[in-house]
Model the fold of this input.
Amino acid sequence: MHAQTQCAAESVGVVEPQRAHFDAPLALKSGGTLPAYDLVYETYGTLNAARNNAVLVCHALSGSHHVAGTYAGKKNSEGWWDNLVGPGKPLDTRKFFVIGVNNLGGCYGSTGPNSINPATGKPWGADFPFVTVEDWVDAQARLADRLGIQRFAAVVGGSLGGMQALSWTLQYPDRVAHALVIASAPKLTAQNIAFNEVARQAILKDPEFHGGHYYEHGVVPTRGLALARMVGHITYLSDDSMDQKFGRSLRHDKPVFSYDVEFEIESYLRYQGDKFAGYFDANTYLLTTKALDYYDPAFDYDGDLVAALGRAKADYLVVSFTTDWRFAPSRSREIVYALMHSDRRVSYAEIDCPAGHDSFLLDDAQYHAVLRAYIDNIEV
Amino acid sequence: MSYQRYDYDVIANWIEPGERVLDLGCGDGSLLRHLTNVRQVRGYGVENDPERIVACARNGINVIQIDMEQGLAGFDDGFFDHVIMSLSLQAMRNTQGILAEMLRVGREAVVSFPNFAYWRHRQAILNGRMPVSKNLPYQWYDTPNVRFFTIADFDALCEQEGIVIHERLAFDEDKVIVDEPNFLASVALYRLGRAGG
Done:
């Protein structure tokens, strides 16, 4: 049955994260191995008897398993993609069983740098092995096995999450019917890697980083992490949206010739940076930006993306945003043309939304109309 | 719309089962849906109108949102068997450019357009008014059409550009017009190829 789109959309309500422990070692692309690990995840909706209505939502750099719903007694605890997932929403939980997973190396409960390394009895810190998009997908596949899901109706993700959705269709072509690759790219450009490197250097050069073993010193490299987030934020917004939101507004209505906050954009960036540094883990930030940089499914095919996509069997929806310059529309089109030339079914929408890269998290009417139209046709 | 169905049938007859087909200005995807049903084509549509993108997604049609006026960069040479532009050429500014692009990415091109020299249109002009008809349903001030040309004009352009006309069918409503098409036909459909190709 198709969802009634005219129904008012609701929240999935109060949710609780779950934890799955895995004892079988996971071989990583870097050559390392995770001997055992935990994955924290949430689910919304009900897995049907045929077990063919599962949708995996993959998170980006700073996201988590908490995709939708709220936590009991916690204000402002909506999941990061709550506007997309729920009863009557484009990814309708009356039809689909939706899963969010915190990736390995994360800091929201899944095994990561702030977990205890069983070999030392101390936090992994900088010794946590490098994890890649492919490793995350492998771990997500094991969770799917655990939940009794042989094949996903769809794997969905924005930005770095879109890379995971794409990678799913290459690593497990028989286990994905549809991939929704949003505001993403087949690989980062040099400019994009450059922004990540500035962010990493900010963290690595923070005197409280202690080579990544800051947990043992009871400190956190908050200055570096905040700076990293500030750089990131600049690239997630468009020039226009930043101008519209902040312009050249001055705190004191006139220049006071000081390095304290004067322009409102300075205030915003400092606030966002400090807030982020208060809850996110610096080692996770380092690992995750490296995973972004390394992702390049065409690397083993002499850069030939069409050849790399030859294994794929899924159908695709690719979406980009006109004002997104961190993951520009031209990068999404590379994916689209390569998929088309691999004879994959693919649709592509370029959404005229002013909010830059962050657009993929918003509920722009055209964006959600495209998602809803595409997702409604996914058969379960 | 009966006029749309004969357009679709002619195009379907020019296409072999299982072909790769690109439909430029695919609207809500109904031609591609028809060709998928009757010819099992691997079809892709190109559109740039947001509402039509949603309509295509709803119709389960592969649609790619780009501005055709910018050409078809990104599409490989000769990837498609047929590249179709149904009743949209008159709304394109870069006529020569898009025809060249269609025959670059496709083995053959299929083009249909309203014939501005249709006798009813001539009559309207003689009466001093711009033609408004089933095939030109717009007023002069709100028409999306930017190029106004006739069957004779298009034949001359093909000659000039070295485009081979494999087949041409002209219609008045759903009736095939054999004699004096530039006078008696309201719509023309062409099957085009590259010279020497």
